[in-house]
Amino acid sequence: MIKSLSAYKAVFFDAGDTLITVPNDRRIFNEFLHKRLFYREDKQVGQLLQEAIRLFYANKRMRADAVSSPEIDRTFWMDIYTYTLRRLGAEEQWSAEVINDCSYDLYDEFSNPAHYELFSDVTQNLERIRTLGLRMGVISNFSPSLRDILQEKNILSFFDPVIISTEVGIEKPNPDIFKLALKRSGLDASEVLYVGDHEWNDVWAPGQVGVDAIRIKRYDYHTGEGITSLAELI
Length: 234
Prior knowledge:
The chain is of the alpha/beta class. It is built from nine helices and seven strands. The protein has two domains: 5-21 and 116-233, HAD superfamily/HAD-like (Rossmann fold, 3-Layer(aba) Sandwich), CATH 3.40.50.1000; 25-109, DNA polymerase, domain 1, CATH 1.10.150.
């Protein structure tokens, strides 16, 4: 059972689908396709993109010895985009090389900070947590663009440390990324609460090093126990 927030010295967060989201992902994806004279309905694009994300990430148990790099991260997301394009019937119009090039470019498109938004409960509750005298940090599997995204959304200054998988060469659910965060923060595992959206990456993995964790469920397809707003932490 998770203790009261007052029992901790710090709260560390996942980033994507915990603090930030791309609310118009289907529109962005489809506008990208339209520029290349490939036309599908927004609804179909959104459904198949979410299908790919659930298949490759949300419902998948990742490797506990996972490593990371900008190239590995790009390949992971390119697999999602390639799957989506093929499910949309891109092979009827494009060669495998063109599909690969589009997936490569989609990774860059979705790294653009302008496409991201904070969940509506984020800024207010980060302020509340800081007022309580708690430190905050970020531990995230993300592209190197994360710092720019957090800066553009005016929340980067809340966090120290900021541990990004593609910068440190480790990614969740490898427990070593949590050990690194504890080392950089100078905190003991018992002093930190971690919040994230993924059952394996954000609950199981921190638990392996003794960090309490709570899952946040931001979308309808998130099932099981957890909170739905950061306000529930306070």
